[in-house]
Write a structure and sequence with these properties.
The chain has one domain: Cytidine Deaminase, domain 2 (3-Layer(aba) Sandwich). Helices cover 24% and strands 22% of the residues. The structure holds tetrahydrodeoxyuridine (THU).
Amino acid sequence: MKTTEYRFSYEVYDAIDELAPEDALLLRRALQMTQNAWAPYSRFRVGAAARMQNGEIVTGANQENAAYPAGLCAESVLLSTAGATWPGLPIDTLAVSYEGDNIPNDHPISPCGICRQRLQEFETRTQHPIRLILGGSTGKIYIIPDANLLMPLAFTANELP
Ligand code: THU
C-alpha cells in the first residue's frame, strides 16, 4: 500500500484592484450578471462571465425552477451558451460572483460538483484549460489556473469505448 497526495496551487488576491484590468473587468461583469438571475427560491443570485479564445464575452446567471432540481447554475447556463454559440471554441477565463438577500458577498464561492463535471467536459471538448476567477463584491479573490484542478480523479470520456 502507498498513500498518494493531491495538491494544487492557486492565487489569492486581497482586492479587485490587484487584478489585471481584463480580469477585473470579467469579475465585475460576473457581479453585474447576478441581476439577471432568476432565484426567487434560494434568493442567492450567481453571475458568470467568460472570455472566449476569440475575445468574445459570454455570460450566465442562475435560473431556478419551482421544481427545484430543474434549476440551472450560472456556470451551467454560461457553458451551454458558449458551446452552442461557438462550438469547440475554448474558454480562456471564467469569472463567478454572487450576491444574496441578507448575506454578505465578501468571499469567493466555488462551482458546485455538477458544474465542475461540466467544466471538465468543456475543457476536454475544447482541449484547453479554463482559468477561474472567483470573488464576491469585496474580500479575497481566488484565481485557479485550471478548473480541472477542482475535480481530482474525475470520471471522463477516456473511460468510455
Ligand atoms: N449556484 C450557482 O449558480 N452556481 C454555483 O457555483 C453555486 C450555486 C446557484 C444554484 C442555486 O440557484 C443557488 O445558487 C443556490 O444554490
